[in-house]
Write a structure and sequence with these properties.
By secondary structure, the chain is of the alpha+beta class. It has two domains: 124 residues, 3-Layer(aba) Sandwich (Thermophilic metalloprotease-like), CATH 3.40.1830; 213 residues, no CATH class. It contains nine helices and 20 strands. The strands form three sheets. The protein has an eight-stranded antiparallel sheet. The protein has a seven-stranded antiparallel sheet with strand order 7-9-15-16-17-11-12, with helices on one face. Strand 19 and strand 20 form a beta hairpin. Helix 1 crosses helix 5. It is globular. It binds fe (ii) ion. The site of fe (ii) ion has 4 residues, from strand 17.
Length: 348
């Protein structure tokens, strides 16, 4: 029997009905490449059909890169044609189309498309991170957490591995919440994450990645310690991986690669550390920092975002967080907030 043969349908049903809200007659395109998980694609198409939607699956050869790096290897005209009038687009491509020219053209031509990017999805991950999650409850939790955090002026984050960082929030920058409430005409991601960009020049302290760092490494055997001054990494310490990371950053010959780009909270009850960053960055109670390129959604006051040669994300497990001096998380668990504590207990 195939892994999770019985449970996968339930997970696809949650995705199709609760997250994407597929209705009678919706044109639903599922994209995949030759490395995508066939069982996941088929289960999703079947649930789209059950919900009264019209599924169409488009497979392409796996490109050698992601986003715009995949452009030359993608069937640009036919793929764009298949997607631009879709009501719903579910992306399972391993080498993702997100931010490719195909994606840009599809999003430009439709401001109400319901799109979700689910890179590297497999039955085990789908059952844990979607099928077994109470999505409405998670959405409620994330909304409150985003409001509480966004309302704070000063934030402090520590972890048992040695992170000790302080920063100020930026009044014009929003919290980006991936809650399972699908956004229209925008990229939605696997539920269970909140991201935002603080005032970069206010970020000071020590940042210790102890989970994974993608790219260039994956799962970390030894922590990497970064010293951050005014939002910039000025020192990298640790073992073999720290040296590898230092070389990778230097290889771009781009000063912007040393600047922090965003912080994210991870809050998906089923996520576990696997080396797949989509899942790692959603581990309950973790924080993640991105370095390098900053997308325009994170810094709406700066048109086109902040360009850098690349972007990477590192995970800090079991975070403690203080909002304007009041602690809200202690080693990955909510404290001092009755409603969030109750929801957390029910979710995990
Ligand atoms: Fe990132």
């Amino acid at each position: 029997m195939m892994e999770y043969d019985f449970e996968l349908g339930k997970s696809a049903k949650t995705l199709v009905e609760d997250i994407l809200e597929v209705k009678e007659g919706d044109n639903v395109v599922i994209t995949a490449d030759t490395k995508s998980n066939e069982a996941v694609v088929k289960a999703t198409a079947a649930e789209v059909f059950s919900a009264g939607g019209k599924p169409m699956v488009v497979w392409n050869a796996t490109p050698l890169g992601v986003g715009k790096a995949a452009d030359d290897m993608l069937p640009l005209k036919t793929l764009t044609g298949a997607l631009k009038d879709a009501d719903v687009w579910i992306e399972y491509n391993e080498q993702w189309l997100l931010y490719s020219t195909v994606y840009d053209r599809v999003i430009e031509s439709s401001d109400d498309i319901r799109y979700i990017c689910l890179v590297e999805m497999n039955p085990d991950m789908m059952v844990r991170t979607i099928g077994r999650v109470d999505m409405p409850k998670l959405a409620k939790f994330l909304k409150i957490m985003a409001e509480e955090t966004g309302d704070a002026k000063k934030v402090k984050v520590t972890t048992p591995a040695g992170t000790d960082l302080e920063f100020e929030n930026h009044p014009e920058r929003h919290m980006i919440v991936h809650s399972g409430d699908i956004m229209r005409g925008k990229a939605s991601m696997l539920p269970g994450q909140i991201s935002w960009s603080p005032k970069f020049e206010s970020i000071n302290g020590t940042l210790v990645f102890d989970g994974s760092l993608v790219p260039p490494i994956g799962l970390l055997d030894n922590p990497i310690k970064l010293t951050v001054e005014k939002g910039k990494v000025i020192k990298i310490e640790g073992g073999r991986e720290a040296q590898q990371f230092e070389k990778w950053l230097a290889s771009f010959d781009d000063e912007r690669m040393y600047y922090l780009a965003h912080i994210s909270y991870g809050f998906n009850p089923g996520a576990k550390l696997t080396g797949n960053i989509v899942e790692d960055e959603r581990i309950w109670g973790g924080t993640e920092w991105g370095l390098g390129n900053v997308g325009s959604k994170l810094v709406p006051e700066q048109e086109g975002g902040i360009e850098a040669a690349s972007h990477c994300d590192g995970i800090c497990s079991n975070s403690s967080v203080w909002l304007d001096g009041k602690q809200i998380m202690d080693k990955g668990k909510i404290v001092n907030h009755e409603e969030l504590e109750k929801l957390e207990k029910e979710l995990i």
